[in-house]
Amino acid sequence: MALQYYLILSALLFTIGVIGVLIRRNAIIIFMCIELMLNAANLAFVAIGRELGDASGQIFVFFVMTVAAAEVAIGLAIIVSVFRHRETINIDEINTMKG
Amino acid sequence: MAEQILFIIFGILAVGSAICVIAFKNPIHSALALVLTFFSLAGLFISLGAYFVAAVQVIVYAGAIMVLFLFVIMLLNLGRLQAARQINKAKVFAVIVGIILAAEAIYIGIRVYDGTAVSPSQAGSAVVGAAITTEQLDQIATLESTYQLDRAEINSTYVPKIAEQKSTVETLTASEANQLIEKLQGEMGKPDRIGTVLFTKFLLPFEVTSLILLAALIGVIVLVKREDPDTAA
Q: Taking CB atoms and an 8 Å limit, are B73 and A23 in contact across chains?
């Protein structure tokens, strides 16, 4: 299976994530879409690593997963504390920092 | 052939469930669709020979991270917060921008890598029956040092699988050496190979990730800790 097909699939998944971030107003769904984009990048890493015969691609996926786990923990904690103060997680209503 | 079938099945599943993630109204349904996306990606990793990464994908993403998502969705009881969704200008604009981005990314995916920079193993396969070249020997030596392999082990386990009656790397022909290099590279997704690289070449980054996790741990505790009414100013 050629590398191109994996890169195209990765591009599609990434774009679906971007569209999700742009059209959804729920902070948790936006978060899920960010996870989707990270996964699309992971797929590209593994596919290119296989093509070049280099294990570094898979090691980087490992690090991306660690960062994603930390990011999800922090992000969901922020969402929980915002919900406690504002009783909403609709990002249109959380606009205090807009100025 | 098996790889093509896996790619088509899991590729369609991944894209379909990813669209479901952004299309479902209820956040719990979106989260479950995202679990399916993560499982399909694990399947794609298996088709790429990255077995360790596939296992970690299922354990960390489909297991830990999604449980956290579902936990928060249910904790906040978000099912009742469904705002009426209407199609407005911003959403149409977002979809158009997304389609342009997709076209661009696919174009780059096709064109940036045209297959000319083939992996080194296929470089010297011109002459059939020629003896092993010094480049191939160098490459095997590099693989040995990267994955901490033993030449004696390669001679006794890998060489006889490729060419019977032969027992040392040096007696292989050039095409057989290519097969050996491909086999050694193809096994890089095995957990012991990943572990070897992780704890030699990438030891410092590996240690730094533990600091990231520690920072996340402390950050989460500080963020969600309720202020004690007795001590609050």
A: no
Residue B196, pLDDT above cutoff 70? yes
Whether A57 contacts A45, CB under 8 Å: yes
Q: What is the ipTM of this complex?
A: 0.92
If asked whether residues B232 and B140 sit together in one domain, one would say yes
- Ramachandran assignment for A87, one of left (phi > 0), alpha (psi -120 to 50 degrees), beta (any other): left
Q: Shortest Cα distance from A38 to chain B (angstroms)?
A: 11
CA angle A37, A62, A5 (to 5 degrees): 50
Chain B residue numbers with beta carbons less than 8 Å from the beta carbon of A46 are 45, 48, 50, 53
Cβ contact, residue pair B97, A55, below 8 Å: no
Return the number of CB contacts < 8 Å for A and B. Answer: 220
Q: What are phi and psi of B173, to 5 degrees?
A: -85, 170
Q: What is the CA radius of gyration of chain B?
A: 25
pLDDT per residue as tens digits for the range A18-42: 999 998 888 999 999 999 999 999 9
Q: Which of residues 145 through 184 in chain B touch A, CB cutoff 8 A? A: 146-147, 181-182
Per-residue pLDDT at B171 exceeds 80: no
Q: For residue B199, is it within any domain? A: yes
Question: Mind listing the pLDDT tens digit for each residue in B90-128?
Answer: 888 888 999 999 999 888 888 876 655 555 445 545 555
Structural domain of residue B76, as residue ranges? 2-81
Q: What is this structure's pTM?
A: 0.85
Q: Three-state SS for A69?
A: helix
Question: Domain A25-90 falls in which CATH fold?
Answer: Helix Hairpins (1.10.287)
